[in-house]
Amino acid sequence: MQAFFAQLSALTQLEIAGFVLTIAGIGLAARNHWLTWPLQMAAGVLYVGLFVQFHLFGEAALNGLYVLLAILGLLQWRRGATHTALPISRMIKQDHVMFWAVGSVGTAIVANLQVHFLPTDLPWLDSTVFVFGVLAQWLQARRKLENWPAWIALDLLAAGIYLHKDLQVTGVLYLLLALLAAYGWWDWRRLMRVAAHA
Asked: Does a structural domain hold residue 87?
């Protein structure tokens, strides 16, 4: 019993550390600050370990990709020696078509792989968060405004998954992330209006 509580305490500490780093990182992203990326890298590493323990392999893989995409995001946001910021922009029609086509096909492929090869009980939900999470992170790295509504939907879906898996701290985190994503959406639209009138 003592070993169980020690393990639970370690998981809770891991969840809390991931919680703090993620909130700080997304808060900085919503404020359009480049330091979001190092914090997202650190949080991603912590969540890989946590999600593997709970057989959420899609989310574990997603967080591994977050680490790699955070490196890309950092390079995109801080281009060159002059650190010229990549401007915020909107997706064009082809971007939307690609987003939904890749997301739908990717989710079907990953879910089927999980069903056949991994011990998971939520393959479709897990795969949806994984595939569309990669796409949303890619949009954020490219500073596309539409990354924020994508994150709102994914954060709410992920919160339900984590609460179902008894990851209460992480479930609450993702509800807060949905609120931060709503703020990010509002703030980036404001920044676009300011840039348009500059």
From this structure: no
- Identity at 171, one-letter amino acid code: G
pLDDT in tens, 4-28: 455 556 567 888 888 889 889 888 8
In three-state secondary structure terms, 51 is: helix
Q: What is the span of the domain harbouring residue 54?
A: 2-78+93-196
Angstrom distance (rounded) from CA 173 to CA 16:
9
C-alpha separations of 27 from 32, 53, 98 in Å:
9, 27, 28
Q: 106: closest CA among 126, 91, 120?
A: 126
Question: pTM for the whole thing?
Answer: 0.76
Tell whether 52 is covered by a domain: yes
DSSP H helices in 80-122: 93-117
118 close to 57: Cβ distance less than 8 angstroms = yes
Task: List the one residue out of 55, 20, 57, 54 whose CA is nearest residue 40.
Answer: 20
Task: For residue 123, tell me if it sits in a domain.
Answer: yes
Domain count, the chain: 1
Alpha carbon 121 to its chain centroid, in Å, reads 21
Judge whether 184 and 29 are in contact, CB under 8 Å.
yes
113: number of Cβ within 10 Å: 14
Terminal alpha carbon distance of the chain: 63
